[in-house]
Write a structure and sequence with these properties.
83 residues; alpha+beta; two-stranded antiparallel sheet
Length: 83
């Protein structure tokens, strides 16, 4: 059997990325925009992972928070902003 082996050599000379270190005082002094909430006081806009043990109501929570947004109802006296 004739085996063709190809070897790839990385000849790029890019330097590794270096991250800046920020101390706590600098981080606390930064100004940020106020959070905007999809569900008032509960769910700000952004990416979230709804995780937990099985059969504790994750599906019901997601359904209960999406239903008022779709049909413009209130969720337990909490305003839900339409997307």
């Amino acid at each position: 059997m004739n085996e063709n082996k190809t070897t790839s050599t990385n000849t790029s000379t890019t330097a590794p990325k270096v991250f800046d270190i920020i101390d706590g005082n600098t981080l606390m002094a930064q100004e940020y925009e106020p959070l905007q909430f999809a569900v008032e006081r509960i769910l700000p806009y952004g990416l979230f992972i709804l995780a937990g043990s099985g059969k504790i109501g994750k599906s019901w929570l997601s359904l209960d928070t999406s239903f008022p947004e779709t049909y413009n109802y209130e969720l337990v006296n909490i305003n839900v902003e339409p997307a």
